[in-house]
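In this section we walk through a basic example: taking a raw amino acid sequence and producing a predicted 3D structure, encoded as discrete structure tokens. The instruction is simple. Fold the sequence below.
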Amino acid sequence: MSTRTPFVFLLGLILWTPNVQFTSAQDAPLFTQDFPPAEFSARREKVYDAIGPGAVAVVQGEATVRGYVKFRQSNEFYYLSGIEVPHSYLVLNGSTRQTTLYLEHRKEGRERSEGKLLSFEDAELARTLSGIDRVAAVEDLSVELGSILRRNSTNTIYTLFQPAEGFAESRDLGIRRITDRLSDPWDGRPSREAHFIGLLEERFPGFQITDLNPILDELRLIKSPLELDIIRKATNLASLAIMEAMRSVEPGVVEREVDALAKFIYYRHGAQGDAYYSLIASGPNAPFPHYHQGARTMQDGELLLMDYAPDVGYYMSDVTRMMPVNGRFSTEQRELYGFYVRAYRAILDRIRPGVTANEIKKEAAASMRTTLAGWRFTKANHREAAERFVQSYEAGAQAPGSGRLGHGVGMATHDVGTFDGPLREGMVFTIEPALRVPEENIYIRLEDLIIIHKDRAEIVSDFLPMEIEDIETLMVELGILQQYPQIKEHTGVMK
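The resulting token sequence is shown next.
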């Protein structure tokens, strides 16, 4: 048994969080404690600038959730308000540069059962907590919006066209959810956003309905210092969970057990949920990039891919590592994985502000080619797989329009915003190139979270082991799954 201290020694990396008390002390805060009202106000000011004085923006909040599930506001509504109440609406008036929040009336029975939520009856409190200019009842939205449109000679209404991002959801999955429903001949319902647009067109004919998403997308591309702090915490938690997996994984462990220990670390340190379902894929499951069944028992000699991160205060991360299930890389695994790490490092080491993704890719591809020339492979098909990997990256560096190194990360795991052009301060993204040996069902992929600063790139997850020796050393330590083995069922009694 190892006498080395488990993951506790690294918790100092994640214990700090921007949790300044902006509200009076109470059992359950009624407004987010991750940001001050001024942060949301500054975002709304940028929306006013974008839509101009001749327009209003109307944003619909998330609806009541299905089942016994904690309510989570949509990313778009939270980004502009910090309000976490279902069936809320925002109207941003470009002429007066003031915002009105529309809330439902108090449901006293529900409050007695579930606890207090902000309602119209708390209008003054809601205004004070949030810094929003005015609070009104939701049934007044139609009348007041019509008054604004007439009084200000406004002819344009901005609203969301794309599916709002909900719990553990990026826009790409939101679009998939809607298209799946539309293709079902026994369903066919439009998105909630399309329904809302139809109501606006019906109730306010003659006004131009315009997409608000491009404005919000570009605002969300560049993160503020407070946003970066929360993303760092999410990344540190994801990394600590993967490190604990390295301690706990061994032959006979089921994939879902690793999911469980990661969730313990996330929730124990302030996460509010998953950024996405856990991608814990052992052996032949790894080549499926979004495999998430968690049902397979790990076998000796296999590799495990773990791609998982939490939702911390509406901000995500995305981190991936691989590990040998038995704690030791085989000779062939060392060769193939070792080459991949050198190629992967070639990309990481060249990321910096002021250069484009294509420039970085060309530099990295040249380094990969040099590494490949001097690398030894026991198996010919492994060298061929490495050659295909380098060729593919070289081709990507030359391809027009290949303006991304990976994908953005922020309020969504696959975050919004345009990454074309030089990397800029405040951008956050991951890289995750994959090496495949299809005839052996081998798939190797790592992923790190990067923040671009004015003068450097910060690899937030760089403390998470990726080198062979560091992984093998960590895997010798005692893990949570070994300290708390499964309870076995015996004669109907759990013991």
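Looking at the output, two observations stand out. Confidence is low (pLDDT under 50) at residues 1-9, 12-26. Residues 225-483 form a domain with the Creatine Amidinohydrolase fold (CATH 3.90.230.10). In the next section we compare this with other chains.
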